[in-house]
Specification:
The protein is an alpha+beta fold and 584 residues long. Among the domains are: 183 residues; 173 residues, Glycosyltransferase (Alpha/alpha barrel). Helix content is 34%, strand content 17%. The chain contains 14 helices and 23 strands. A hairpin with a 4-residue loop joins β18 and β19. α5 runs parallel beside α7. It is elongated, with a radius of gyration of 25 Å. It starts with a helix and ends with a helix.
């Protein structure tokens, strides 16, 4: 499948494409929008363009990847409201239902517009709303109930007011309450039937599909469909894609939306610099830093799911350039790697940029780290990066063999062997684990994170080394094991008690990458245990609040226990993906 052609054809149909609010339903490619808002007549308070976060005024329910069914529960003041949508061959259907009780104070406002400065003609005629799109397509909105006149001077686009004394249906075809409710029931039932294929893990599948669906938007600046980590992180920027976050989202999309898996891979790889570096984010102003090189392993997952040689042929050269960039810019003479930050044109960089490249911005492993402005490197050899680079070389070599590029495969093999030899030099026999090396003091660092287990991606790790790492550290409840796993720093580390961001909190991508490393090492029982504990952690807040967090407490398992934890961040669903992946 050609990715450029796919990008041109994907931006179509009804969905919640508008990044700035979840109550706006948009018809692409024209950008015709139907926006819902709620207003109190008594005091003029308006609920409009809300986003999904910790605010109890909005709670998600299940939805599909593609927007064929969505459901939200709102609370405007004391008024509970359910908003459902379905998209069928006939068009869009919205059902807005007051839940619990009715208050005459609540107004539903339906507004229409053409977003992003798009051409089109809006129509308000005989108490109905509609539009004529640039190609002549006509859209008319119907309702199951009468609107009423109300003067609101701040409204500047065509709008209608409805009383919230019964379910209100807004649709693009004639549709009474009975038909609308039947469509909603059938659409939701189809979603639930699909989830049943995952048996005891159905709820994890629903959580994953819901968070990815709500965080998929249309980026008008680059005319593309993409999936930012969270709408909260994407306000006012079009379509900001973070590097490793987007690769992980693409992998999760293989559970039901091939198109989105491909589009997100294209979205982040399109941001690669001329020198081959895939940047920290797609809207990065300067190319001083990348992020963990997980692209090839994620692309391999997608290729394994679909067997699409055209896709592999298109993305392989970009991934190979990225691997070369890491080898040329982050490798030391012995083949080990360090995180870094340096702008090619100016030579400027800093330690904070290097920390951000690791993805673990405030990790305690960097507390005493130094930075070399000449090389642009953090003066600390990193076990985790070295392990990921080894994995990258292995996967790219397999891709090269598949594509008949034998010279590439041999070059990648040499890079891998060199890095594996350097990795073995980081083994600490006394501590029984591979440890980072401080290049200033020459001493190894006993401050451990889950990234130390990325050494397991290397085939050079012996069975005895595996045993000591697993028994002495991973499964040790005084370090990384316990009811809630895996903390982002060992429980023995003084920073663990802070439970602040990468200082002790649990992060889904670390769990996932350790899970994959355990499988590569043949430690399937341990991988299964990690997947089970990760899924239980995900469901703890999903079932209670419908949250999927950026990170979680390693003490009580809650995401809401820290301010810096977005409540609807798609990589959190990796905690459930592992259990779903094991079923395939």
């Amino acid at each position: 499948m050609n990715l450029t052609d796919l990008q041109k054809t994907a931006s179509k149909g009804w969905n919640t494409w508008y990044s700035e609010g979840v109550l706006t339903h948009v018809l692409l490619p024209w950008g015709f929008a139907v926006n819902l808002s709620f207003r109190k007549k008594s005091n003029g308070d308006v609920l409009k363009t809300p986003l999904i976060n910790r605010d109890p005024q909005l709670k998600v329910d299940v939805r599909t990847f593609d927007g064929s069914y969505t459901c939200l529960h709102l609370r405007h003041g004391t008024t509970p409201i359910k908003v459902e949508s379905a998209v069928t061959e006939e068009g869009l259907v919205l059902v807005i239902t007051p839940e619990g009780y009715y208050t005459s104070d609540e107004q539903l406002i339906v507004e229409t517009s053409f977003l992003w400065g798009r051409d089109g003609t809006l129509i308000k005629e005989n108490g109905t709303l509609g539009a004529i799109c640039p190609d002549g397509t006509r859209v008319q909105l119907y309702s199951n109930t009468e609107s009423y006149r109300y003067y609101l001077p701040e409204l500047q686009s065509p709008s209608l007011f409805y009383a919230m004394n019964s379910p209100v249906v807004i649709s693009t075809m004639p549709c009474d309450t009975v038909k609308a409710c039947r469509i909603m029931g059938e659409s939701k039932s189809a979603l639930l039937r699909k989830s049943e294929a995952y048996g005891a893990h159905a709820e994890s599948y629903l959580a994953l599909q819901t968070v990815l669906g709500w965080n998929t938007i249309y980026d008008p600046l680059k005319d593309r469909v993409c999936s930012p980590v969270s709408r909260n992180w994407n306000r006012g920027v079009g379509g900001r894609l973070f590097c490793w976050d987007t690769f992980f989202a693409s992998v999760m999309f293989t559970l039901g939306d091939r198109e989105k898996a491909y589009l997100n891979i294209k979205g982040i790889l399109d941001a690669a610099s001329p020198l081959g570096m895939v940047p920290n984010s797609s809207d990065q102003a300067v190319f001083d830093r990348s992020q963990p090189p997980v692209g090839s392993m994620c692309v391999e997952k997608i290729y394994d799911a679909y067997g699409d040689m055209e896709f592999l042929s298109e993305v392989y050269p970009i991934l190979l350039r990225w691997n070369r960039w890491y080898d040329e810019n982050r490798s030391l003479e012995n083949g080990a790697l360090s995180w870094g930050s340096k702008v090619p044109e100016t030579g400027k960089g800093d330690l904070f940029g290097a920390k951000c490249e690791s993805g673990m911005d405030n990790s305690p492993i960097f507390d005493d780290a130094a930075y070399d402005p000449k090389s642009g490197l953090c003066l600390q050899i990193d076990v985790g990066l070295t392990g990921l680079f080894i994995k990258d070389c292995k996967v790219l070599a397999r891709m090269a063999e598949t594509l008949g590029k034998k010279e590439d495969a041999e070059a990648l093999r040499r890079r891998r062997v060199r890095a594996e030899e350097a990795l073995q030099a980081l083994w600490n026999e006394e501590d029984g684990i591979f440890e980072n090396l401080d290049l200033v003091t020459g001493k190894q660092l006993d401050r451990l994170t889950p990234m130390n287990f990325f050494a397991l991606y290397s085939e050079s790790v012996t069975e005895e080394q595996k045993r000591r790492m697993i028994e002495g550290h991973l499964l040790n409840p005084e370090e990384f094991w316990g009811e809630y796993v895996l903390p982002s720093v060992s429980r023995r580390d003084y920073a663990f008690s802070e439970q602040h961001y990468w200082r002790g909190r649990i992060w889904a991508p670390l769990n996932y990458l350790v899970y994959e490393a355990l499988k590569d090492a043949g430690l399937y029982s341990e991988a299964k245990m990690l997947a089970e504990k990760s899924e239980r952690l995900l469901l703890l807040e999903w079932e209670k609040h419908r949250h999927i967090h950026e990170n979680y407490s390693a003490v009580d398992g809650m995401g809401c226990s820290a301010r810096q934890s977005d409540a609807f961040y798609h990589w959190g669903a990796l905690l459930g993906y592992m259990a779903l992946d094991a079923l395939r």
